[in-house]
Amino acid sequence: MSTSELPSRALPEEFDLRLPSGTVHAQRFGLREAPLVLCLPGLSANMKVFDFMGERLGGKHWQIVALDLRGRGRSDTTPSGTYGWKNHARDVFAAADALGAAQFSLIGQSMGAFITLQAAAIHASRIERAILIDACGDPDPAALPLIEAAVNRLGATYPSVEAYLELVQRIGTIRPWSNYWARYFRYELEPVEGGVRARSNRDAVLEDAAYPSRDNGVDCYALWQHLRMPVLLLRALQELMPGYGFIVSEQDRDRFAHTVAQARVVEVDANHYGINTAEASVAAIKEFLR
């Protein structure tokens, strides 16, 4: 189904939220009076990563609101020291307050899943349901070079939007490629002298990437104990790229299902990126939210 064929309630409405930490840009799929589901992107990602899901989930039953985390997309870039999972989690509650929701559900993809865990540690009673998309613990070491490469692209200038889209498709981490990903990167890129570059701020992303160091006392596994609400973990069945491992290992999949009492685990035949545009993901989330 093309965007033009979707009912008007499933088309996005973009707006800004003025939070204590700064301005956060957002987009809504669905009716404002419907129960709120906040969507949190990954490390260097933007809110458009949820377009596929938003079009299919938003409506009279759920108000799907995806956020550009600070330092990404069209949200404010704030000073050094203002990032990290805990600060983003505080933004989550401030966004819910601004939207008039005492309780809400969360969908977190990649780093957004860890922000969801951190939000549960802060105020679990406000979170009705939590959905973690392909993240819950340490990724396979083999996947780290590809994660680092995604960060290293930030700040670089590319000749044009089309040249950048061609490069991303050639790398092959995003599969299957679709117009949703073209939309995502067109939103991500901004014009600069000599071409275009990603809006995501490199320093903000690096600060967030360094946050989960156990040297700083942050342990994502310790955050599992705060998940007292129903939880859905979607795990990608395909490696990030062949030979580069998984973001959620089989060991963590089993450990999560055993440790978190109200957890449900669904595996989706896609990789870490393709899981966002898989009909199976939407079906699992829809059933879970119901």
Describe, in plain words, how this protein is organized in 3D:
The model is unreliable at 1-9 (pLDDT under 50). The protein has 290 residues and is an alpha/beta fold. The protein has helices at 51-57, 85-98, 111-123, 144-152, 161-171, 179-188, 202-210, 250-259, 279-289, and strands at 13-19, 22-29, 36-40, 63-67, 104-109, 127-133, 189-192, 195-198, 231-236, 263-268. Helix 2 packs across helix 3. Helix content is 32%, strand content 20%.
How would you describe this structure in keywords?
two-stranded antiparallel ribbon; 9 helices; 290 residues; 32% helix
> Mean pLDDT score, rounded?
94
Adjacency order of strands in the biggest sheet: 1-2-4-3-5-6-9-10
Measured by DSSP, the beta-strand proportion falls in 15-25%
Structural class: alpha/beta
Which regions have little confidence, pLDDT < 50, spanning 5+ residues? 1-9
Tell me the layout of helices and strands:
Blueprint: E1 13-19, E2 22-29, E3 36-40, H1 51-57, E4 63-67, H2 85-98, E5 104-109, H3 111-123, E6 127-133, H4 144-152, H5 161-171, H6 179-188, E7 189-192, E8 195-198, H7 202-210, E9 231-236, H8 250-259, E10 263-268, H9 279-289
Parallel strand pairs: 3-4, 3-5, 5-6, 6-9, 9-10
Antiparallel strand pairs: 1-2, 2-4, 7-8
